[in-house]
């Protein structure tokens, strides 16, 4: 029988990751507005780099989740992550060809969300296959 901490790993992970992603989204969306204000050089510097803090927080959340889950879940986690990395690499490498057919250029702001979507897709497929 799994310990209570293992059983709560999933819900805790979802809540913590939602908070980190929400913070990242808020910082990215508010950045232009905040940069338009005259807050001095140090404030401008901090505003420009603030989304990095949310990304580091998301990474910490993922690491904490990985350490909370059992060995089988860790194997599935790493397998989904590896497949997502490959899928995201194909999308990122192919994007310049997609701009030739009218899609907008892919900026680095969208790389992490794209990787997260790829990870979600691979995880969903993985869960569907194990049912």
Strand elements, count: 0
Order of helices and strands: HHHHH
Number of individual domains? 2
Quote the beta fraction. under 5%
Computed structural class: mainly alpha
Q: What is the count of helical runs?
A: 5
pLDDT below 50 for ≥5 consecutive residues: which ranges?
Answer: none
pLDDT averaged over residues: 88
Taken from the alpha-carbon principal axes, the silhouette is flat
Cα-based radius of gyration, to the nearest Å: 18 Å
* Distance from first to last alpha carbon: 20 Å
Largest sheet: none
**Helix fraction bin:** over 70%
Outline:
With 131 residues, this protein is mostly helical. The protein is built from five helices and no strands.
Give the helices and strands, then pairings.
Blueprint: H1 4-7, H2 9-36, H3 40-68, H4 71-99, H5 111-129
Helix pairs in contact: 2-3, 4-5
Question: Which properties best describe this structure?
Answer:
131 residues, mainly alpha, 2 domains, 5 helices
Structure description:
This protein is mostly helical and 131 residues long. Helices cover 83% and strands 0% of the residues. The chain contains five helices and no strands. The protein starts with a helix and ends with a helix. The relative contact order is 0.10. The model has no long low-confidence stretch (mean pLDDT 88).
